[in-house]
Amino acid sequence: MRKFFPVEELARDGRFNQITMKDRMADPRTVLGKDGVRPSSNRLVPSRPDASTAARVLMHGIFVGEIQALEGAGRTCHDFRTAGDQARRAQDAAAGDDSGADAVPFALKLDMARQAWDEARHVEISVKLSDWMGGEIGEIAENTVLQAACSTDPVLRLAGVNRALEGLAIDVFTTMKEFGDLAGDPFLEFCEDWMLADEVTHVKMGSDWLRKVTENDPERRKKALEFQGIVDKLFSYGGTRSDSEESPIGLARRFRELAGFTDSEVEDIAEVSLAALNERKDAVARLQAEAASQFAGR
Amino acid sequence: MADPYKPRAPFAPWDRRELPGSFDVEDSARRVGNYKWAEMKLFEALGGWVATVPELDVKMRLGTHCYKHAWHADLWHKRLPELREMNPDRLTQPANDAMVRFVEAMTEPEAPDQTIEKLVGVYRVFIPRFIAAYTFHKNNTSQITDAPTIRSINFILQDEFDDWRDGEMILQSLIETPDDVERAARHQARLEAIMVEAGGIAGPGSIGMTSTGASANGPQNGSAA
């Protein structure tokens, strides 16, 4: 089995349809309302006219996100040599890779295996919740965001998956838990709360390992945090997640703090998310202007 | 109320544990190092395969089982210093070169249409060998001096049986045609041959018998009896 699996080859059954982030962002329907105008508030609340559909779509997004998180954690168990594993080192050397740079502590891999189990449970939970909410597997396209989990540097992978992707999960689960509470759905609220507890643990794992592994390598830590910033912006989905009421998903500041984010790190994510929202709005405005001028020119 | 000062036998009549065991400290540590290495290879393989299998139920099972074997590896990692091996990496070794080749062959299948081969390697060859080696260790080590190893084995065996049953049932649901049967059997035979060469998870003597059929469970093998 190869080390480092490309995101394009993630195995799925026939029900799934995968699209890239670029394709998704090119679809103006993801940012405009029914009348072609962006509403001032998009928060996922039961009073939204499309609340039921929006919640089902988000739940499907959680479901496929959990599959990818499961795959990412599993691959980290496999892709990197465990420090001290001489037999694997000899195998790698025989295969022409004797750098040893990818060795990770045994305890880090144990954490990733634990995360794989947690994510497997999350897939189970979200399948059942989707069914509960009237959804079906594959009814919404799967956005492939696992590029963050395909980095060949374990520290970058931790920053991308455990801090950025799992950080987004904290925001999403908090929003969904609140939605369950407001909508009077204790089943949804109960499940989201359990998943939220796991996600805080995963982000904390990422924060702790990032600090530990880069303790004596400030340059590598800087690079990892920069990578996390890029992934955070990517995961803001053009403003789907931010402090603004225009974003369906809010930023869960309190849970992020519990997970080891500093105040300034949370502020950075808030800024990046807001910038992503504004960039997306500008891009859509441009598209609309272009379309209008084409129409006027006919 | 019974007299609390009345002398009692240190071992109650129902406590039949014995001191003698087949393994001295070094034997036990060597085996534990082999177990840890093999459990590590198994959790790494299961984790790696998650992204390669299209079947959703299999994907979730592999993720769940991945953690269980990582936990087993951790139990053995923590046991090694208690067996006087202060550098656990030193004994975290495959039993022999054939065991390395077995793991290489077991982890070869990667394509999305090779789920049967992936599961056969784990659930029809590797895990049954774990069950055998652990059972032999549990039944032959000193029930008193090596009680911490036995306790870990009891936890681990429960997982191994549960996971073997899960994997076997999934396999039975995937094997639908005579061609599938042939595929599964062919791959199992190939892996089994390498495993026989390796002699089991802890090498020859994993279950007490050597390849010549002689018992490896005697005084020359570190009996404290």
Could you characterize what this model shows?
The complex is a heterodimer of chains A (298) and B (225). Chain A has 298 residues and is mainly α. Chain A has one domain (7-297): Ribonucleotide Reductase, subunit A (Orthogonal Bundle), CATH 1.10.620. Chain A contains 9 helices and 2 strands; from the N terminus they run βααααβααααα. Chain A has a two-stranded parallel sheet. The longest helix of chain A is centred in the last third of the chain and has 35 residues, at 263-297. Chain B has one domain: Up-down Bundle (Ferritin), CATH 1.20.1260. Residues 218-225 of chain B have low confidence and may be disordered. The A-B interface holds A 1-2, 5, 9-13, 67, 70-71, 73-79, 82-87, 91, 106, 109-110, 112-114, 116-117, 119-121, 123-124, 127, 137 and B 37, 40, 43-56, 59-64, 66-71, 73-74, 77, 88-89, 92-94, 100, 104, 107-110, 112.
Provide the fold topology.
The complex is a heterodimer of chains A (298) and B (225).
Chain A: E1 18-19, H1 21-25, H2 51-79, H3 86-94, H4 106-132, E2 142-143, H5 154-183, H6 186-213, H7 218-234, H8 253-258, H9 263-297
Parallel strand pairs in A: 1-2
Helix pairs in contact in A: 2-4, 2-5, 4-6, 5-6, 5-7, 7-9
Chain B: H1 25-49, H2 56-82, H3 88-91, H4 97-106, H5 115-140, H6 147-174, H7 178-198
Helix pairs in contact in B: 1-2, 2-6, 4-7, 5-6, 5-7
